[in-house]
Design brief:
- Helix 2 runs parallel beside helix 13, helix 5 crosses helix 13 and helix 11 packs across helix 12.
- A hairpin with a 2-residue loop joins strand 9 and strand 10.
- By secondary structure, the chain is of the alpha+beta class.
- The chain is built from 13 helices and 26 strands.
- The strands form seven sheets. Strands 7, 17, 18, 19, 20, 21, 24 and 25 form an eight-stranded antiparallel sheet that branches.
- GO terms for molecular function: flavin adenine dinucleotide binding; oxidoreductase activity, acting on CH-OH group of donors.
- Keywords: FAD, Flavoprotein.
């Protein structure tokens, strides 16, 4: 504790990291591992609930105390619905509540970031960070790492219906792909997952706990139940944060700086509460403008998916919580409870002229409608065509100057009509797959949309009523150099010193695929950037398409 802080009764760390999620656990572990004194603040609680660690139980965490339980503003193009957005509110953040699918995105995603002027963010630049993070069950190769903190494995359980769905795609000419993170993303097959021994492997498990237990020159402290309300900015530099917990309000100094890793909703919200953002919005909410930065909260992007549901006489994951399956999981770490629900899927282009896929599938031997809250008699399986290159853009807005008031989430889903075209094509493809001979042994009837829905108007109406988030909000603290950029390509908040962002909010364009692995990569790279360490040598791998 320095003399000034001691006189003020304040604690001082080298860095304060806000948010113990997919980016925060990574950057806190790496900074402390390099010898820094780091305080990690998490608004949620510990990750002790059993359902966190049993993979198939993740929907049980939705709308629980471990969920931020966000809702969007009414969506004009989705029948005025407010969409539910689950986000993890615990150690591990959304890596403790997600479906554990390990997907990095397409080469074109990162090359596109670099083409916007973001130096060091091409596919060949970021691949070494993916490999550094990874402990791949099948061992290291030019695309995968072994011995890293995050265990990636071939899921221990796959339902026969999910493999049949893959065969249905193959019958329509889609190639089999056993590694979506290898030389080519397109094709269909089983997903790799962030599990270890059949249990969830969140960033809290992979990074945070080993770092907390580690000796050495660095120091890491993690505090839960700590809601950060403001970043302290003095003379253009972030010097610490204010946070609330049960005993009251506290200030903590950060001698080297503050790292925001609270996610695509909370990181921009906290910047705005701290007086950093678009002037008119801040003044309207009664927040004193400390640093005008109009892009804060802009550029919001997310993936949508739509359920296509069939009923079946085959036992589905509805039986996962049976005594037999529970015993199998607890004694051997196997069986239905190892499922991540979205067990298989794939990537494809709705237009052959596209440079990369715009459609992804998540397939599960379960009824997955309204995030799993809808329950029907009998057994079901669901194909979920997913929009992964959305053109629609939204924003996060400040509701008031009160940190206890939630921000306004306005994704503007389907505001670009081309996004609807992709989802319609996806539902049509799901039905074609559902009608293949591969599914004949399992198929009874199409429950949703239902055989009565046959024309384009009917499909659009169904999509507007049933589309859901895939839980991938990004982009609200955009990396770049234009007028809406919030951070530069070293993740420093533009115009301020000692303040970085290290989470999915910095993504200028959403990756094609699930966003947990890319966020972990960002945390890895952020630590090097903050510490001024050289990046690992670029890894040259040839594209196959």
């Amino acid at each position: 504790m320095d003399a000034e802080a001691a006189r003020a009764g304040q604690e001082t760390f080298d860095y304060v990291v806000v948010g113990a999620g997919s980016g925060g656990c990574v950057v806190a572990a790496r900074l402390s591992g390099a010898g820094a004194r780091v305080l990690l603040l998490e608004a949620g609680g510990p990750d002790e609930m059993r359902e966190i660690h049993i993979p198939a139980a993740f929907p049980k965490l939705f709308r629980s105390p471990l969920d931020w339980n966000y809702e969007t503003e009414p969506q004009e193009h989705l029948n005025g619905r407010r969409l539910y957005w689950p986000r993890g509110k615990m150690l591990g953040g959304s890596s403790s509540i997600n479906a554990m699918i390990y997907i990095r995105g397409h080469r074109a995603d990162y090359d596109g970031w670099a083409a916007q002027g973001n130096r060091g963010w091409s596919y060949e630049d970021v691949l070494p960070y993916f490999r550094r993070a990874e402990d791949f069950e099948d061992g290291a190769n030019e695309y995968h790492g072994a011995g890293g903190p995050l265990h990636v494995e071939n899921r221990r359980y796959t339902h026969e219906i999910c493999d049949a769905i893959t065969r249905g795609f193959e019958a329509l000419g889609y190639p089999r792909n056993d590694d979506f993170n290898g030389p080519e993303q397109e094709g269909v097959g089983r997903y790799h997952v962030t599990q270890k021994g059949g249990a969830r492997h969140s960033t809290a498990t992979a990074y945070l706990r080993p770092a907390l237990a580690r000796g050495g020159p660095g120091h890491l402290e993690a505090r839960t139940g700590a809601l950060v309300t403001r970043v302290q900015i003095d003379d253009g530099r972030a010097t610490g944060v204010t946070y609330r917990d049960e005993p009251g309000e506290h200030e903590v100094r950060a001698s080297r700086g503050v790292v925001l890793a609270a996610g695509a909703i909370t990181s921009p919200h906290l910047l705005m509460l701290s007086g950093v953002g678009e002037r008119a919005m801040l003044e309207a909410a009664g927040v004193e403008v400390v640093h005008e930065l109009p892009g804060v909260g802009q550029n919001l992007q997310d993936h949508l998916f739509v359920p296509v549901v069939y009923d079946t006489e085959t036992a589905s994951l509805k039986d996962a919580l049976s005594e037999t399956q529970m015993s199998l999981y607890l004694t051997e770490g196997r069986g239905m409870l190892c499922s991540n629900v979205g067990e298989t899927g794939g990537f494809m282009r709705t237009d052959p002229a596209l440079e990369a896929p715009d459609l992804q599938f998540h397939n599960g031997a379960a009824l997955f409608v309204d995030h799993g809250f809808l329950e029907l008699d009998g057994h079901h399986y669901t194909l979920l065509p997913s929009l992964i290159a959305p053109r629609s853009r939204g924003q996060i807005r400040l509701a008031s100057a009160d940190p206890g008031d939630r921000p306004l989430i306005e994704p503007n889903y389907l505001s670009d009509p081309r996004d609807m075209d992709v989802l319609v094509a996806g539902v049509e493809l799901a039905r074609r797959v559902g009608d293949t001979p591969a599914l004949a042994p399992y198929r009874l009837t199409e429950v949703m949309p239902g055989e009565a829905v046959t024309d384009r108007a009917g499909l659009e109406a169904y999509i507007r009523e049933q589309a859901m988030t895939i839980y991938h909000p990004v982009g609200t603290c955009k990396m770049g150099h234009d007028e809406l950029a919030v951070v530069d390509d070293e993740l420093r908040v533009r115009g301020l010193e000692g303040l970085w962002v290290a989470d999915a909010s910095v993504m200028p364009v959403i990756p094609r695929g699930n966003t947990n692995a890319p966020t972990i990569m960002i945390g890895e790279k952020a630590a090097d950037l903050i510490l001024g360490r050289p990046a690992p040598e670029r890894q040259l791998v040839e594209a196959t398409a």
